[in-house]
Amino acid sequence: MTILDRPELDLPLSVAMRQGSMAQHTDAENATFTSELMAGRINEAGYADYLRALRVVYAALEELGREMAGDPVAAQLHDPALERLEAIEADIAHWSGGGTLETDSPAAAAYAARIRAASGSATKFVAHHYTRYLGDLSGGLAIGRILDRTYGGTGQGLRFYDFASIERPKVYKDGYRERLDALPLDAAQRDEVVAEVQEAFRHNQALFDELSGRMDAYRR
Ligand code: HEM
User: Considering only CA atoms, which of 51, 60, 63 is closest in space to residue 105?
Assistant: First the structure.
């Protein structure tokens, strides 16, 4: 196969990642759970279960980040200012009235296992890091505003969307994409990154599918 058969290999990495996941991004936005969440029709119990699943995912992602921080490629993106685990735990406590942080979600466990399997692979780490954090810094912020309106506008329980030390997400995202594009990866490695982004999106979709199956308990 030559580069002429694979024009995406020529794209800057950030563009290849975005284009490679665009269709899956639309699917994620249209999942029942997500669209109901955006329409203000998910109750607190449903939102707490979503956060419990995310807690499993971010625990794995942030452990991997610390483990890979010394890798020259991973170090370009690793940033403790992005870490969400503590915020997620505080938000679960808020929405569940101090209830359990634990979940038995098979989709969350499978997603976390995929992240842990990226140990030692800078390309896979980059993919998982991008899929979660750039999403949180993008649509995530709009979701936070909708949730605040849905649940009474107290501003409480929304620490997940509050990146205290990232004042301007747009500027941060632009810098992040520049760092992605400057990573010393060859075409085959860039291809690996895009493939793992697609895998990460598949796991997010599985998580939404699981939550979408419980709408009877979650609809408000
Ligand atoms: C209701 C669900 C969602 C909404 C409304 C939403 C919305 C958005 C919006 C508006 C952007 C564009 C921001 C920009 O142009 O800078 C964006 C980007 C992004 N979203 Fe989402 N999103 C959703 C779900 C997801 C999910 C489930 C993931 C994966 C975990 C995700 C990952 C991303 C990523 C990685 C980007 C950055 C794309 C890039 O610039 O390379 N999003 N999202």
Answer: 51
Q: What CATH class is the domain 45-218? A: mainly alpha
31 vs 206: CA distance, rounded Å:
10
Residue 219 backbone dihedrals phi, psi, to 5 degrees: -75, 135
From 25, 132, 168, the mutation candidate for ligand 1 (largest count of ligand atoms within 8 A of CB) is 25
**Closest ligand 1 atom to Cα of 208:** 27
Which residues are paired to 42 by β-bridges? 219
Q: Which two tokens stand for residue 188?
A: 């085959």
**Residue reference for tokens 């949730």:** 147
Distance 107 CA to ligand 1 centre (A): 20
How many Å lie between the centroid of ligand 1 and the Cα of residue 24?
Answer: 10
Residue 35 CA: which ligand 1 atom is closest?
A: 1
Under the banding of pLDDT at 50, 70 and 90, the label for residue 140 is confident
Cβ-proximal residues to 42 (8 Å cutoff; 6+ apart), any chain: 33, 36, 50, 150, 218, 219, 220
pLDDT in tens, 101-129: 999 999 999 999 999 999 999 999 999 99
Cα end-to-end distance, the chain, whole Å: 52
Domain boundaries, the chain: 45-218
pLDDT in tens, 11-51: 999 999 999 999 999 999 999 999 999 999 999 999 999 99
